[in-house]
Design brief:
By secondary structure, this protein is α/β, with parallel strands linked by helices. The chain contains 17 helices and 16 strands.
């Protein structure tokens, strides 16, 4: 009986032995020695250029530094971008560039090991250790570029970002993960690093290479320039080995940095088909980061795994806006809108050259004018106190013109009540962020407002005897079509009050803003600079 069992089972045992002794990818070593990078800007730039010159690269695939400004100084925050497997820095363009620009960060666009190389044997030499070494080098460069390093990544770049955050917690300030690769979506991916996995893949594929197929709606010329269009199958097993070895609960729990993970998911039928969304959500849950500082959010209209690239994504706007909100709300970063508003010392100097630049205290300059500075209270759309003092200022020519208008209103038995005048630029930034970028009723901080120039006024009329406001179409600050300067008004008294306000103000050198009956811009505002001087400095 025993002989029969041995006879029948021995072939299976032999096959099992042959299977488990079959070839597999080497186990990664994960050397933790950090590379060094030059600390001076010129030397660092040369170092990156020299490293890239050692390779024959496809056009525009080289690693590069994007400096925050011409000074090339170290910034408070730096961003390093780690692209995904078989990709390049274009996989995150324009999200990485725009993010760095908005927050005044130096940016390093890495080219990770074996990628972007112009060769017929693409990714033949790819291993987790080579990928890891180039990721560590990117972090070293990021540390030379900024005091606090934010790692932005896509797909398998996110695999490395998470591992860097786990191994070097003191060096990684925050993570912004776009479709991070925790687990491959394809059900057979786990076989690629098993014994004989490479040989099996070659049989299934019918050769040594994985070749990209046309993608509907995508410019394949760009796709093939910035992604590997045909790469060796050995690399697939190496990547799977990396995922299984390090994308684990143990790794995730060691991460303490603030983390944002964005991914494409609309419904079960429309979701990321490259990496598993469920694995991303599980990773986020397991992070050692405090719950208040980790976010995982779907971008349902992205339509693709590559959510941050103009070549593939259908909703870059949402990716950028979510990353900005994370940076402001969780990291406390300040957006750089590209303006350098005039501060107090420069303002004082400007008065010597042009006395018209002076900001005049309207309450002192114009007899019987009334103030109701809502931004010095919580009675405004932000529900916060924006100004510390209930003051109203304007440039000297604006104040003179307003005084003339006040004289005309007084003859009719009316007077001016001011809700807002000069507004510090920092308040405009606050309004823009509260309104989430809607510039119908707040100014864009990329340009600054006429209020910031001391050339705009929010006003209404009062009865001089009763001190009561005249009836107007809406309350001040109402964000609706009813507040438009030419909105239909059924009440003839209200219509007349609005017409009186607008006609006399425009007669005296102002222009009403079409969306707000109370808002008047001084004609000639273009001559004046945007300022960021608080009222305490002026008082």
């Amino acid at each position: 009986m025993n002989k029969k069992i041995i006879y029948f089972t021995s072939p299976f045992i032999l096959l099992a032995v042959i299977y488990f002794l079959g070839p597999t990818p080497d186990k990664p070593r994960w050397d933790l020695t950090m590379p060094t990078a030059p600390q001076q800007s010129e030397s660092l730039e040369k170092y990156v250029v020299d490293q890239e010159s050692k390779h024959k690269l496809k056009p525009d695939n080289e690693a590069r530094i994007v400096w925050a400004d011409s000074s090339r100084k170290k910034t408070e925050y730096s961003v390093i971008y780690l692209h995904g497997f078989s990709a390049s820095q274009e996989e995150g363009d324009p999200v990485h560039v725009n993010f760095a620009k908005k927050f005044n960060c130096n940016l390093y666009l890495a080219r990770l090991a074996d990628h972007g190389v112009d060769t017929t044997e693409q990714l033949l030499l790819f291993t987790p250790d080579r990928w890891w070494q180039s990721s560590k080098e990117a972090l070293a460069i990021g540390k030379a570029l900024g005091d606090k390093v934010i790692i932005m990544s896509t797909s398998t770049g996110g695999t490395m970002a998470l591992l860097l955050a786990a191994e070097y917690p003191q060096d990684v300030h925050a993570l912004i993960n776009l479709s991070p690769n925790i687990q491959i979506f394809h059900p057979l991916a786990s076989l690629s690093n098993n014994p004989w996995g490479l040989q099996l893949a070659r049989k299934v594929i019918g050769g040594n290479y994985n070749e990209s197929k046309p993608i509907y709606g995508v410019d394949m010329k760009l796709q093939n320039q910035y992604w590997n269009d045909k790469y060796r199958l050995e690399a697939v097993g190496q990547m799977q080995e990396m995922l299984e070895d390090k994308m684990t609960e143990q790794t995730f729990k060691r991460i303490k940095a603030p983390s944002l993970s964005l991914y494409y998911y609309k419904n079960e039928a429309e979701q990321d088909s490259t990496v598993r969304v469920s694995a991303i959500l599980k990773m986020n849950e397991l992070l050692g980061t405090p719950d208040s500082m980790k976010v995982a959010l779907a971008i349902p209209d992205a339509g693709t795994h590559v959510i941050g690239s103009y070549i593939r994504s259908k909703d870059i706007f949402s990716v950028e806006r979510t990353a900005e909100n994370f940076a402001v709300g969780k990291l406390g970063m300040k957006i750089n809108y590209g303006l350098n508003p005039t501060k107090l010392d420069a303002y004082k100097d400007s008065l010597k050259a042009n006395p018209d630049n002076e900001l005049i205290d309207l309450e002192k300059f114009i007899p019987n004018i009334m103030l109701d500075i809502r931004y010095a209270t919580t009675n405004n759309f932000t529900k916060e106190k924006i100004y510390n003092l209930p003051k109203a200022y304007s440039r000297k020519p604006v104040a003179i013109a307003l005084k003339k208008a006040q004289d005309e209103f007084n003859k009719l038995g009316y007077g001016i009540k001011v809700y807002d005048g000069y507004r510090p630029y920092s308040a405009t930034v606050k309004f823009y962020e509260v309104m989430k970028g809607d510039t119908m009723y707040v100014a864009s901080p990329y340009k600054g407002s006429k209020h910031n120039r001391g050339c705009a006024l929010d006003i209404t009329l009062v009865d001089l005897k009763t001190k009561e406001e005249l009836k107007m179409p809406t309350e001040w600050g109402t964000a609706s079509k009813e507040s438009w300067a030419d909105a239909p008004v059924s009440d003839p008294i209200i219509a007349k009050n609005r017409e009186t306000l607008i006609s006399i103000m425009e007669k005296n050198g102002f222009k009403v803003y079409t969306a707000e009956w109370w808002h008047f811009d001084f004609v000639g505002w273009q001559k004046y600079d945007v300022m960021d001087i608080n009222f305490e400095q002026l008082d």
